[in-house]
Design goal:
45 residues; mainly alpha; 2 helices; flat
């Protein structure tokens, strides 16, 4: 599948969505951010 289609499909809701509380969403975002930073992919200001 071409790259552009892969990116589009990643945002589609047909495969379901995560039902999370605000607290769970904030926690998940923090964990994702930590992993990105650990790989050197994001600068923390």
């Amino acid at each position: 599948m071409p790259y552009e289609q892969q990116q589009f499909h990643a945002l589609m809701a047909e495969g379901g969505v995560l039902a999370m509380s605000t607290e769970e969403s904030v926690d998940m975002a923090a964990r994702i951010r930590e992993r990105i930073v650990a790989r050197g992919g994001l600068r923390v200001l």
